[in-house]
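Our consortium's second objective concerns turning raw sequence data into structural hypotheses that experimental partners can test. To show how far this objective has progressed, the report includes one record in full. It was chosen at random from the queue rather than selected for favorable results. The single chain below, 219 residues long, was entered without modification.
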Amino acid sequence: MVIDILIQIGLILVTVFMFLVMHNIPQKAFARYRAYRSRADTQAKQHFVKGAQLLSRAQAEAAAGSDNKDAAVALAKSAAEEADKAIAIDPKDAASHILKAIALDLQGFRTSALDSFDVALSPIAAKSLSSAERGDALFKRAKLKVAMSSQGERLDSAIADLVESVKLRNDNAKAYCFLGECYEKKGMVEEAKAAYESSTKVQPMSAAAAIEALKRLSS
């Protein structure tokens, strides 16, 4: 009895499968899915590009001085909103989370900015970044951690980010220099010297801060 029922179910499934194949339904469904994903990817990229443009304008306003602070914050808010739209379409794209983090930081929402960096560097999202891009993101997150830490409680975590950052991108003189500063704050003089020296080797023509630090530590 049970075997007969199972045989009937199997025959029905085979019949349905053959019907679907004969009418190209799986292929049509897959084609529609690909078209949907293509439109979604395009929309996500459009929101990201618009957000990046707004963020660039916000940073320019912020660099212009305190008189432009309100304009910078308003532009940064709009940039974060565009990043949110891109994230809603493709939550696994780390670039949109990084865009949001920088925009939030510019508005003064550092805790939320750090959360966005954490998402961007999570195992699922970080897959969308190249090694160099991950290195840059780690550098930015380390700077944010230090800026948020008045007593140095995030310093060890920032150092860990910077060590990983320079492994992933060993041509970032600013990351080496900032790593030297963090080591110096920890009283780790030899490690600080090594980081500053790496900064001067990577970018000898514009390593004034690292050279000055080495002179100070050697005196």
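The partners drew two points from this record. The CA atoms of residues 4 and 31 lie 38 Å apart. The radius of gyration is 25 Å. Both points have been shared with the crystallography group to help prioritize constructs.
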